[in-house]
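User: Hey, quick favor. My workstation is busy. Could you predict this chain's structure for me?
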Amino acid sequence: MSHAGTALGGQLVFRPGRALPTIASNRTALAQRLLRGRPAADAPQQLSRLYALCGRAHGLTARLAIDAAHGLRTRPTAHELNGFIVETAREHVRRIWMDWPRLITGQVPANLAAVLSECPLFRYGVGADKIPPALQGWLETHLLGEAAAPWLAQWDADPEHCMRQWTTRANTMPASLLAAVDADACALQAAGPTLLPHRQPDCLRTLANAMAADEEFGSLPSQAGMMCETGVWTRLAAQHDEAGPVANAWLRLGARIAELVRLSVPAATPGATPPLAIGAMTLGPGRALAWSEMARGLLIHLVRLAPAADSDMAQVADYRIVAPTEWNFHPRGIVARALADMPAPRSTVSRQHIGRQVAILAAAFDPCVDYRIEFEHA
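Assistant: No problem, here it is.
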């Protein structure tokens, strides 16, 4: 049983019903090995190719990190930010229409190609620097089944009530899918400390120091000794000054829908705070940290530059990345704890049920690589 990914990116192993650690990973620090000693100017393009699934996020975060390490800018241009928002919306659409049905039901919608061909985000010639005006109408037809603004107001007022009412009345594929997994997804209760260091400069410096001091940090990250979670739901909660994220897998799926809808709605006022945070911090000569709130959660890049021996161009002395997958799928993190809370399977039927629960977790937390389930006596 697997989530679509590539062998290059590694694989996760889930061990439901067992004691922690319930997740194993063979993901490696590819960026560190690939970039060390290479020209710094080449890093953004190389990382975009290496992490093709999230290429724009990695490329832009790398450009900001390297520019900040040179003592230059720490913020994206308006064009870069808009392109990043477009790519995040596109990624949400891919996951909702391509991954959720396959993971949760084992089937791909018969009309998938036709529906996505109508999506303005995938039309040939659509500019990458702004959300197409037609996206909101497409989402109202194929996702919500109703007007976007009132739906968002209902979500902001009470996410659980909004989801409960919407999945009952809407006749769209995502609504029907979420209605079908309501009980199973709500039963997957999970909450942990939230990862929001980019909102506090001191926390960013502490995180940068931890990344620099420990070569294994990118695989086993923590913040103040805590295994944090990161995702759409953590940033939505922070925007509304809530104490913590939503508490179950069902609402986490709903949070992804809410962010996609929000990205399609024009800002109420010019110059409003961007819906996604992205930036960088210069840590010293030739050192910088950059971050971006991508579709899967918070992405962090740390770079250290050095003069090249045979040219005036700086080269990468060290490059480290912590991706959202490493936080959410930490061997003792939030998904691992949810797996540990599952009962040990006693029959083929119970294994099928647990497999469905694992698939719901994968849809909600979205690892960027393959996974397989390993039962104790498999």
